[in-house]
Amino acid sequence: MFKTIKAASGHNRRVLNNFFSLSVVQFANYLAPLITLPYLFRVLGPSRYGLIELARAVSVYFLMLTDYGFSLSATREVSVHREDPQRISEVFSAVLLLKFLLMLLSFLMLSLIVFGVPNLRADWRVYYLAFGHVVGMWLFPIWLFQGFERMKHIAALNLAAKLLFIVSIFVFIRESDDYLYVPLLQSAGVIAIGLAGLFLALRTFPVRLHVPSLDVLKRELRNGWHLFIARMATSLYTTSNIVILGLFTDSSFVAYYAAPDKIVRAVQGLQIPLSQAIFPHIGRLASQSKQAAMSFTSKVAKIVSVVTLLMSVGLFIGAPAIARVVLGEQSAAGVPVLRILSPLPFIISLSNIFGVQIMVNFGLQKTLTKILIVAGVLNILIALSLVMPMRHLGVAVAALVTETFVTAGTFVALRRSGLHPFKTGTDRSHPESSAESKG
Question: pTM, whole model, 2 decimals?
């Protein structure tokens, strides 16, 4: 009994340590853009700031393609098999190789798109410089650190790189014509972190690089497939809104949407460290006891929902002041977007718990994928129908409606499977519960 209590205490302490480490990472990831956003918006102007954000949005598609689904599938596999060095080395080698091949495919696709679309061709240098982010994330095996639940060193590396990026922006960006330095500095920072993280992983963990077998490559592709489809579907109602604005309107409207969206996503991103920290913990609990996993998740769900609701209310009330600080003279264009998007921290935090923490860890990836595909299509249809008459306001409405649909859809799917995220354990009255959770 004492051993059990000690082990549980150790697990909780590890989750807490990872939460704080990931909080530093997330804090740096979102604080850097928020510190530099007002400066860049004023120095570059709405048009060129919008161009930088459009290039970043395009690169996100290739980030997702290169990641495939490994950020979750490989994390879970490492977490479950962390005591097996041979299996960990297999996963490590296979994922790095697969991500490299997907990165090459991404570069080819980027070239075809940039030189095939007239609106993008003139600014091809911006898109290629932004692609450096994809290279950096291929090198960075953050999923390995998450699987072992050891994020302290990564937090320190990330914080140092972001501080250097912030200083570089204020040093090198002096006028509108310096806009190319923005994606260059962003990519350089990510590549530096990627190289340092890879070196640290090889020094810290019992992993060895080798040529993986075809069977191992197929296994990793199979494990990540539904998560990959889910993430690509997610991009249809996140990244695509900026791309749609860039294709159908002036890049200034991209800026009027992207800047408030970045603020909202930064607030919403405050709960991401908790999400990343508890995901492998819930996965391990679910493999041992689904009752224990649901009990832990329900406690987290109640706390997160209250905190993020307060965040959303604060965003709505404080929208005029926030927009004035960030956008300056252009604040009037940003306030309505900020208010439309303000419920997202609350809504997305719930969909993360329902979809990622429970559905993925309980083997309901197929159902989650279907929900996200429908949501992606729904967003594209709404955004395309509203972008011309309402421009940046139209895609903001599309984002809100779609995120609400995802949260409602995942909740309904859980209840049909006999799982309730706000109650301890599974609902034994639902015969589907045990069958589906094994999926």
Answer: 0.77
